[in-house]
């Protein structure tokens, strides 16, 4: 066949490659460098069939939702400028368009994580963030930014003032900001209360465990609240 050495190297790369787009690029490159004569007609035909099958396989891949369709959840922590490889080592995220996205749990609080490489191209997502962690200073997309080579979501949440409170027998905490009250919790949970509603508190904010308090009572991290509506 008299093909150049690069052709056989590409053939080996193709056999090991898992990404469909990369496999397609390799096949196209092989078709470019393969000498064109009668002796390579069969090989060209094989490459074309492989490329056709590869495109059909790629067309059956699940449709990926656009990043703009990601529903906002509180708190949202956005990571900017970190390599996808390093972020994926730390968190179990999914690729959506050009970003990584997912929900993680930090101290029993569910946190929405978004990781982007380019801030300007994803400014709509960043503008909805409570916290941005980046390797270097970026535009003022939100009021709380952390500049760090390392990603420490737990520390960022603590410095931001995020706390977790519990309702009755729940295992997962409801994310809130330090200084928010039982009434703020009621709103987050979309509960309807009567004028004589109150809460029973167990935790740091209570003067004694099981204290009965008004809905204006300020909450602290780890509080468990029984709302009497």
Give an overview of the whole structure.
The protein contains seven helices and eleven strands. With 229 residues, the chain is of the alpha/beta class. It folds into three domains: 5-59, no CATH class; 67-160; 162-228, Ubiquitin-like (UB roll) (Roll). The strands form two sheets. A six-stranded mixed β-sheet has the order 2-3-4-1-5-6, with helices on one face. Helix 1 packs antiparallel against helix 2 (20-33) and helix 2 packs antiparallel against helix 3. It starts with a helix and ends with a strand.
How do the helices and strands line up, and which of them pair or pack?
Layout: H1 5-16, H2 20-33, H3 41-59, E1 76-80, H4 84-90, E2 94-96, E3 99-106, E4 109-116, H5 123-127, E5 131-134, E6 145-147, H6 153-160, E7 162-167, E8 174-177, H7 182-188, E9 198-202, E10 211-213, E11 224-228
Parallel strand pairs: 1-4, 1-5, 5-6, 7-11
Antiparallel strand pairs: 2-3, 3-4, 7-8, 9-10, 9-11
Helix pairs in contact: 1-2, 2-3
């Amino acid at each position: 066949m008299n093909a150049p050495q690069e052709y056989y190297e590409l053939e080996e790369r193709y056999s090991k490659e898992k990404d469909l787009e990369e496999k397609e690029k390799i096949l196209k490159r092989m078709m470019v460098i393969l000498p064109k004569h009668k002796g390579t007609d069969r090989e060209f035909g094989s490459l074309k069939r492989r490329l056709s099958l590869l495109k059909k396989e790629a067309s059956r891949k699940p449709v990926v939702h656009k990043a703009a369709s990601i529903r906002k959840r509180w708190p949202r922590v956005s990571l900017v400028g970190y390599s996808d490889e390093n972020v994926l080592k730390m968190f179990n995220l999914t690729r959506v368009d050009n970003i990584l996205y997912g929900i993680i749990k930090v101290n029993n609080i569910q946190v929405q994580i978004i990781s982007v490489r380019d801030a300007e191209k994803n400014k709509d997502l960043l503008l909805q963030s409570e916290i941005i962690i980046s390797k270097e200073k970026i535009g003022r997309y939100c009021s709380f930014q952390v500049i760090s080579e390392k990603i420490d979501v737990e520390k960022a949440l603590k410095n931001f003032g995020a706390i977790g409170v519990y309702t009755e027998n729940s295992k997962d905490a409801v994310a809130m900001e330090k200084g928010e009250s039982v009434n703020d919790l009621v709103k987050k949970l979309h509960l309807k209360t009567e004028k004589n509603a109150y809460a029973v508190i167990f935790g740091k904010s209570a003067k004694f465990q099981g204290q009965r308090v008004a809905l204006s009572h300020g909450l602290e991290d780890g509080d468990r609240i029984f709302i009497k509506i």
